[in-house]
Amino acid sequence: MAKPRARKSISVFFPVFNDQETIESLAEKALAVLPALTDDYEVLLIDDGSTDASASVADELARNLKHVRVIHHSGNQGYGAALRTGFSNASKELIFYTDGDGQYDVSELALLVPLMSDRVDVVNGYKISREDNRGRKAVGAMYNRVARFIFRLPIRDVDCDFRLVRRSAIDRISLGLSSGAICVELVRKLKSAGCTFREVPVHHYPRIHGKSQFFTPRRVARTLFDFCALWLSLSLSGS
């Protein structure tokens, strides 16, 4: 009888900025689903200089829940910086991340893991339906179309931060952006490194607590600047 394949270890991390109302539920859902997927796992909370009680909530979770670790930024460095910290501190074979605002169902990680075959490097979710207001839906759709066209991305929804990535794939690229444009940088550089992608539909839910930290003039301007700088950098390097 053939010996069953060992299940791959998984790191789950959440970038956190002023998400005090949602991170406990996210950590608990992750800890509930992970034992069915692997025997070796961890949950990282990346506090990006939150100004609410997120830092203390995260610390309390780490004290009370096995497998949970917290990493604090001394100040707010941006979404991309939080992702880079998560990737650099994740220690397992597979790395999954999603946002800390609770708009995705962490338990749907169970939909991604079966698609991570030996020939697949990235399994990316795409939103079945975006549950935001009309303005954000319009901006998101435009951003996604432009990003896919300019950077020739291999996925339909780069704006869906519900990703499972092989650690060995992350080790093949270098990420530098600190804004939300890092998602485009991540997918484009993984594609250029020869990575294979799979996609799966996932649910997206209305934001119940807090407000988006992205849709401010300063953050949108920084993301657009990084978007253009990334395009120029890749064009000059021929990537």
Describe the structure.
- The protein has about 240 residues and is α/β, with parallel strands linked by helices.
- It has a single domain (about 10-235), classed as Alpha-Beta Complex (Spore Coat Polysaccharide Biosynthesis Protein SpsA, Chain A).
- It is built from eight helices and seven strands; from the N terminus they run E-H-E-H-E-H-E-H-E-H-E-H-H-E-H.
- The protein has helices at about 25-35, 55-65, 80-90, 110, 135-150, 165-170, 180-190, 215-235; strands spanning about 10-15, 40-45, 70, 95-100, 120-125, 160-165, 195-200.
- It has a seven-stranded mixed sheet with strand order 3-2-1-4-6-5-7, with helices on both faces.
- Helix 2 (about 55-65) links the parallel strand 2 and strand 3.
- It is globular.
- The mean pLDDT is about 90.
Structural class estimated from helices and strands: alpha/beta
- What's the alpha carbon Rg, rounded to whole Å? 17 Å
Examine the coordinates and then state which fold CATH places here, giving the name of the CATH topology. Answer: Spore Coat Polysaccharide Biosynthesis Protein SpsA, Chain A
Number of domains: 1
Q: Unreliable segments (pLDDT under 50, ≥5 consecutive)?
A: none
Order of helices and strands: EHEHEHEHEHEHHEH
**Looking at the chains present, what oligomeric state does this protein adopt?**
single chain
Assign an overall shape: globular
- Give me the side-by-side strand order of the main sheet: 3-2-1-4-6-5-7
Termini Cα gap: 46 Å
